[in-house]
Design a protein that fits this description.
The complex is a heterodimer of chains A (250) and B (550).
Chain A lengths: L1 E5 L2 E3 L21 E3 L1 H15 L5 E8 L3 H11 L3 E6 L7 H15 L3 E5 L10 H9 L3 E11 L2 E8 L2 E8 L2 E5 L11 H8 L3 E4 L32 H11 L4
Parallel strand pairs in A: 1-4, 1-6, 4-5, 5-11, 6-10, 7-10
Antiparallel strand pairs in A: 2-3, 7-8, 8-9
Helix pairs in contact in A: 2-5, 3-4
Chain B lengths: L5 E9 L3 H16 L6 E5 L13 E2 L2 H6 L12 E2 L2 E7 L5 E3 L15 E2 L2 H14 L3 E4 L3 E6 L5 E6 L2 E3 L5 E6 L3 E9 L6 H10 L10 E10 L9 E7 L8 E7 L4 E9 L9 H8 L3 H7 L3 E11 L10 E2 L2 E3 L15 H20 L10 H7 L2 H8 L3 H22 L41 H7 L12 E3 L4 H10 L3 H4 L5 E4 L6 E4 L9 H5 L5 E3 L14
Parallel strand pairs in B: 1-2, 1-13, 2-8, 5-15, 13-20
Antiparallel strand pairs in B: 3-7, 4-7, 5-6, 9-10, 10-13, 11-12, 14-17, 14-18, 15-16, 16-17, 19-20, 21-24, 22-23
Helix pairs in contact in B: 1-3, 1-7, 7-8
């Protein structure tokens, strides 16, 4: 079975996100970028499926400008077999646009299972996996914390409010990875070198015959209001007064 | 666990800074000229190239001109020319004296310099190196030097990953690798962890004066356009550094309405109550600096130690199987306040020496002492030699008299002052007992121009895997409380720019706490601890600050 895994290039989770002075967007100039951590978990799971024999090939796909090749290469270093880069200069693709592009890649590649991160840590949309499943009319399981391929089905344990839910999906299916699905491995130096020689195909929205525009456009970004420092008060009466009149919470 | 894996290269370079990357680029260029496949590997402990790079910085393009004459077409990030420069002597918290340009020694003229982010320069150099066929591995720390049977350096071992704080192996444990090389180039920067062991093993500094250091603290500010003069360079010294404490500040107007502001404090300071961090914070309130920062927003913070010993402190830079280059050897020209061009050139010279040997079929492990000749014949040597009076003059005579002597040496004697000045007391041995010194009452940060340490560390994007062994080793865990606290009021609490060291608790419950996760990898503790009890070693690869544009 072939597994297709999608990865997104996002601002690194260690970087303190800063909004541009003109509020047009988040400032990404020379900040560290990485694979979205949930996508990284999806890559790790697909490599484990291959190592366990449940999968025969792992194909990694990413969409964006040339720089996303870095993230494809890291996924290849983690153990994926080959990459597909959907080249576009648009870095503000909506979840629907990404899902449409991925759907076309899936139709071309015919994988038995598509793995994605449950959401990207930059825009936190949590939409792409769901939309992709709908566009393909495939069964889906989101927020996976455990995954087991059993013949023509995949058994997925989902993290839901207040507990766990276990589903069996008929393959082919779409699964999105949650935090506890696995802990990604450390990548080894020789694997990084090998990854440079693994095949990486390039395609484009035009070649995939997917048109631009999904009716969503980014108007602006505003940082949260800064928290003011605390003050010390002399007495309980003063505290009550502050809570009532200044903070207006009483 | 099976034997550690290994890989063989012609050259392994430790550290993707300007010196290491210039060395890598030059090696690859020369391999191409000789018709060989470049086999060059660079390991870098930062999570990406540039993540651990922090510098002022004004750079001279001299080394870059030699390495890539067409750097402009290649898009090197040198876009801000110095358009105007000022030097000030801060006399107090409110007053300053502007030094007439004519009085400045030639070495301090910057009109042909560029204001750059050295982090971004390194990011660019890395893309050039990779295009030339160099393998660069960020996120991998060189943890150990590997020696051959004859005692020659034969490579390095990268650190193990996935070790828990108690030393046990986590599920994710991945052993490090041996990276074997015919020649290994150590370009770790100031006070490199492996370089330090090589100095001791090969006696590299036996003929040199003691190395001296400074700690540089830097912030990046977005400022409102009216206060911003692209290309303006403001340097100065004096307040808030008191008496015999050397150092100086910089304030550079970069592109995009950004200002880089910083303070360098010489680590030979004597008063253990000095806190370079707090001096930096209060310095920004001086009207000369505040006029530019007012109404702006601080966007980045970081700190790094630098070498200041100059010519007299230069060690032997070659040894069997390897080289020390850049600040790992101490090639910074402190009179010019610049080290990028000299560091790069030292790396390029090592590359030329290695390529010449490999081209003749050298199998490696030799002591390529021809490097010394190559270095002596280069402009780096001339430049450092002609500035050799600067650091010792300032150390011995203070900024005013020392500066005047240096100016005399530069303008009248053209760098050939017939008196040799030496400063042989190591920085760690300079502290006076705390009881003999006046404690310094630093003002509280106002949250507008000045900030507390923890909110600053937050802006350095520092992160370390939490569950790993402490990377700051104490040879004797009893010394911080037993001796340093009593004698020097434990200066680590104050010289550390990231709040790593703390004395917590009272009386018998008092203890010395190391918040290793805060560490910005500046190496000041390794240098300044009066007991020389702290050894800085690289934590798990990828840990540390993530500086953007620094």
């Amino acid at each position: 079975m072939k597994v297709l895994v999608a990865v997104k290039r996002v601002i690194d989770y260690n970087v303190k996100v800063r909004v541009r002075a003109d509020n047009s967007n988040v400032d990404l100039a020379n900040v560290k970028m990485s694979i979205n951590p949930f996508c990284e978990i999806a890559v790790e799971e697909s490599v484990r499926l291959k190592e366990s024999g449940a999968a025969t090939e792992v194909v990694v796909v990413s969409i964006g400008p040339k720089a996303v090749q870095e993230q494809i290469r890291s996924a290849l270093a983690a153990g994926a077999d080959r990459g597909i880069w959907v080249e576009t200069d648009d870095t503000e693709l909506s979840g629907l646009a990404v899902a449409r592009l991925l759907a076309q890649v899936v139709r071309d590649e015919q994988p038995g299972l598509v793995l994605l991160g449950k959401q990207a840590i930059d825009t936190d949309n949590n939409q792409t996996g769901q939309m992709l499943a709908a566009l393909l009319d495939w069964p889906q399981a989101t927020f996976a914390s455990k995954l087991e391929v059993k013949g023509a089905e995949v058994e997925v344990t989902r993290e839901i409010d207040g507990g766990l839910q276990t589903l069996a999906l008929t393959l082919p299916a779409v699964v999105t990875a949650d935090l506890r699905l696995n802990t990604p491995r450390y990548i080894k130096l020789p694997d990084i070198m090998k990854a440079k020689r693994k095949p990486l195909a390039t395609t484009s929205p035009a070649a995939l015959a997917v048109g631009p525009g999904t009716g969503v456009k980014l108007l602006g970004v505003t940082p949260p209001t800064e928290r003011r420092g605390g003050i010390k008060v002399e007495s309980v009466a003063a505290l009550v007064d502050c809570l009532k009149n200044q903070a207006q919470v009483l | 666990m099976s034997e550690r894996e290994s890989m063989q290269f012609d050259v392994v370079i430790v550290g993707a800074g300007p010196a290491g990357l210039a060395c890598a680029c030059r090696l690859a260029q020369l391999a191409q000229e000789q018709g060989r496949e470049p086999s060059v590997c660079v390991v870098e402990k930062g999570s990406e190239v540039g993540a651990h790079i922090l510098s002022g910085a004004i750079i001279e393009s001299r080394a870059l001109d030699e390495l890539f004459p067409d750097w402009q077409q290649r898009g090197a990030p040198l876009s801000t020319r110095v358009t105007r420069e000022e030097m000030h002597l801060l006399r107090s918290a409110g007053s300053a004296w502007k030094v007439p340009h004519a009085l400045l020694p030639r070495a301090m003229h910057n009109h042909d310099g560029y204001i750059v982010s050295v982090g971004n320069l390194c990011r660019w150099l890395a893309t050039q190196a990779e295009a030339l066929g160099v393998e660069i591995f960020p996120g991998f720390a060189a943890a150990q030097v590997l020696f051959g049977e004859q005692g020659e350096v034969k490579g390095i071992a990268t650190g193990d990953m996935g070790i828990a704080a108690d030393g046990s192996h986590k599920d994710s444990f991945t052993p490090g690798m041996d990276l074997l090389a015919r020649y290994t180039v150590f370009a770790e920067g100031c006070r490199g962890q492996l370089g330090k062991t090589l100095y001791a093993r090969f006696g590299l500094d036996a003929q040199a004066d003691t190395q001296h250091y400074g700690i540089g603290l830097k912030e990046l500010w977005d400022v409102p356009p009216p206060r911003h003069v692209e290309g303006l360079v403001v340097h100065g010294t004096g307040w808030p550094l008191a008496g015999d404490t050397g150092g100086g500040f910089f304030l550079y107007h970069l592109e995009n309405h950004q200002i880089a502001v910083g303070l360098v404090v010489d680590l030979n300071y004597r008063n253990p109550w000095i806190s370079p961090y707090d001096d930096f914070q209060r310095m920004k309130h001086h009207p000369l600096l505040a006029q530019y920062l007012q109404g702006g927003k601080r966007v980045a913070y970081g700190a790094r130690a630098l070498t200041k010993g100059g010519f007299n402190a230069l060690p032997t830079m070659h040894f069997p199987g390897g080289f020390l280059v850049g600040c790992n050897a101490g090639t910074l020209n402190s009179a010019k306040l610049k080290g990028v061009h000299t560091g790069m050139k030292s790396g390029m010279l090592a590359a030329e020496e290695i390529a010449a040997a490999l081209g003749q079929g050298d199998q490696g492990g030799q002591d390529l002492s021809g490097f010394a000749e190559r270095f002596r014949a280069s402009w780096v040597y001339d430049e450092l030699q002609s500035s050799r009076t600067f650091a010792p003059a300032l150390h011995k005579l203070g900024p005013l008299l020392g500066g005047a002597l240096f100016a005399l040496d530069q303008t009248v004697f053209r760098g050939r002052l017939p008196i040799a000045l030496h400063d042989k007391t190591p920085d760690c041995a300079r502290l006076r007992p705390a009881r003999e010194c006046e404690p310094i009452a630093y003002p509280k940060p106002d949250g507008v121009l000045s900030f507390d340490k923890l909110s600053s560390v937050f802006l350095s994007n520092t992160s370390h895997e939490e569950d790993q062994p402490c990377h700051l080793h104490l040879a004797d865990p009893s010394l911080p409380l037993g001796r340093n606290l009593a004698e020097y009021a434990e200066p680590a609490q104050r010289y550390c720019p990231a709040g790593v060291y703390e004395i917590v608790g009272e009386g018998s419950a008092q203890r010395f706490q190391i918040n290793a996760a805060n560490c910005v990898h500046c190496k000041t503790c390794d240098i300044k601890d009066p007991a020389q009890n702290i050894t800085w070693v690289a934590p798990e690869g990828g840990g540390g600050p993530n500086y953007p544009n620094m």
